[in-house]
From TrEMBL:
<dbReference type="InterPro" id="IPR000802">
    <property type="entry name" value="Arsenical_pump_ArsB"/>
</dbReference>
<feature type="transmembrane region" description="Helical">
    <location>
        <begin position="26"/>
        <end position="42"/>
    </location>
</feature>
<feature type="transmembrane region" description="Helical">
    <location>
        <begin position="181"/>
        <end position="200"/>
    </location>
</feature>
<dbReference type="GO" id="GO:0015105">
    <property type="term" value="F:arsenite transmembrane transporter activity"/>
</dbReference>
<feature type="transmembrane region" description="Helical">
    <location>
        <begin position="317"/>
        <end position="347"/>
    </location>
</feature>
<feature type="transmembrane region" description="Helical">
    <location>
        <begin position="221"/>
        <end position="237"/>
    </location>
</feature>
<keyword id="KW-0472">Membrane</keyword>
<feature type="transmembrane region" description="Helical">
    <location>
        <begin position="6"/>
        <end position="21"/>
    </location>
</feature>
<feature type="transmembrane region" description="Helical">
    <location>
        <begin position="359"/>
        <end position="385"/>
    </location>
</feature>
<feature type="transmembrane region" description="Helical">
    <location>
        <begin position="282"/>
        <end position="305"/>
    </location>
</feature>
<keyword id="KW-1003">Cell membrane</keyword>
<keyword id="KW-0812">Transmembrane</keyword>
<dbReference type="InterPro" id="IPR004680">
    <property type="entry name" value="Cit_transptr-like_dom"/>
</dbReference>
<keyword id="KW-0813">Transport</keyword>
<feature type="transmembrane region" description="Helical">
    <location>
        <begin position="48"/>
        <end position="72"/>
    </location>
</feature>
<feature type="transmembrane region" description="Helical">
    <location>
        <begin position="405"/>
        <end position="425"/>
    </location>
</feature>
<dbReference type="InterPro" id="IPR051475">
    <property type="entry name" value="Diverse_Ion_Transporter"/>
</dbReference>
């Protein structure tokens, strides 16, 4: 049997196991990754295998988790929770406000970092009003995913498109005299508000902040703001290392540890901060990077991408529709980074043949590939992170429970973006 067929079968089996037995997902991912190496689907060169893992993402998540530990310990999330409770009449509006807030932050920094920053506030709110944190954290995750494509710096796929199409930061807002991706994404975000009002219509419990938490130190909050500003500034600096975002997060994490030790002289806090890093989430992501590279190396992603393009033929609307909704479907199950990297040159070639500008299909690709990850809990790193945080709190989220929120979000946001980009850029 050819390696391509074997890789496809193993890939499908991996997802079946993760859907049926979610608690086995770490073992399923790494079993397939090791089989890929053993069967020669992935090169056995250790240096190659290490290069396949996106260390920028891993370092960024790990570093931010440490910063967030100190952020939580400072009791700032509790104070923010009380402020938000004061502004909302009931639980439904708390969830909506938190989701929109997370999306706004995610437009400027990585989706995973956003979840790690905002989710503790959501958890604090849920503990105060004694409700399950599942709806809150899942809404924060999918909103972060949604608005990550709004700017050049909000998502890896946006950075990839910006580099490939030579777009600068402002061209995500206006390009060639037309509204850009920012407006497409924000309209999609607004379309999710009535969806949330329907999904959480039963959450009508009144809320109020009955106490005022005293914040124990503001440096962790300053550190989180420093992460945001540093990531934005780094995006404008040319020729930075590929792991610059990860380095920024890790360096600021070390500074947090040093400042806390200097102030409190408590070595046990250093150990607690390191133990707060969710190792299972990091291992899941590392395994997925290897598996996705394996199916990329045997040409499965190339084959899927080429099939989408061939189906469209010379009909631009059909081609655009296939690219958007095909990207939604593929990104629900595979990492959108290798998919977008593969599709960009294919789209460029098609546009050259049709003698049209590529921006319609570029923005359609970004709309579908970014939003598709919201369908499943393993379709995006932000979702994996949120589900991991819920598991640490004792809540297990299955595929079905996640999709009850993910699918309506995706259809509303992707549908709005799909129509906006077509009418503006056709």
């Amino acid at each position: 049997m050819p390696l391509q067929s074997i890789a496809l079968i193993l890939f499908i089996l991996m997802y079946v196991v993760m859907i049926v037995k979610q608690e086995w997902r770490l073992y399923a991912i790494w079993a397939v990754a090791l089989l890929f190496v053993g069967l020669g689907i992935l090169q056995r060169n250790p240096l190659y295998l290490l290069s396949v893992i996106n260390w920028n993402v891993i370092m960024m998540i790990g570093g931010t988790m440490v910063i967030v530990y100190y952020f939580i310990e400072s009791k700032m999330p509790n104070r923010l929770a009380e402020i938000i409770l004061d502004k909302c009449s009931n639980v439904m509006w708390v969830i909506i406000l938190m989701s929109l807030f997370a999306g706004s932050v995610s437009a400027f920094i990585d989706n995973v970092a956003t979840v790690l920053m905002i989710a503790p506030v959501g958890l604090a709110i849920c503990k105060k009003i004694k409700i399950s944190p599942i709806p809150m954290l899942l809404s924060i995750a999918v909103s972060s995913n949604l608005q990550g494509a709004a700017t050049l710096v909000g998502d890896t796929t946006s950075i990839m498109l910006g580099g490939y199409a030579k777009m600068n930061f402002m061209e995500f807002f206006f390009m060639k005299g037309r509204p850009g991706m920012f407006f497409s994404v924000e309209l999609g975000a607004m379309a999710t508000v009535p969806i949330m009002m329907f999904l959480f219509r039963k959450f009508r419990q009144p809320v109020e902040a009955t106490e005022k938490t005293e914040v124990e130190g503001y440096f962790p909050s300053i550190a989180l703001i420093g992460v945001v500003v540093s990531l934005i500034v780094a995006s404008f600096i040319p020729n930075t290392p590929g792991i610059i975002n990860g380095l920024i997060c890790c360096v600021i994490a070390v500074i947090c540890m040093a400042v806390d030790f200097h102030v409190k002289k408590m070595p046990e806090n250093l150990k607690k901060s390191l133990l707060s890093v969710d190792r299972e989430t990091l291992l899941i992501l590392m395994g997925l990077f290897l598996v996705i590279q394996g199916i990329t190396d045997v040409g499965l992603i190339d084959l899927a991408a080429e099939s989408i393009v061939k189906m469209g033929g010379n009909n631009l609307f059909l081609l655009y529709s296939i690219i958007v909704w095909g990207s939604v479907i593929f990104s629900a199950f595979i990492d959108n980074i290798p998919y977008v990297a593969t599709m960009l040159p294919i789209i460029t070639g098609i546009c050259q043949l049709l003698q049209i500008e590529p921006y319609l299909l570029y923005f359609g690709l970004l709309t579908g590939a970014t939003l598709g990850g919201n369908i499943t809990p393993i379709g995006a790193s932000a979702n994996i992170t949120a589900v991991g945080m819920l598991k640490q709190e004792g809540y297990n989220v299955g595929f079905g429970e996640f999709m009850k929120i993910g699918i309506p979000f995706t259809l509303a946001a992707a549908g709005t973006g799909y129509l906006f980009v077509w009418f503006i850029w056709r």
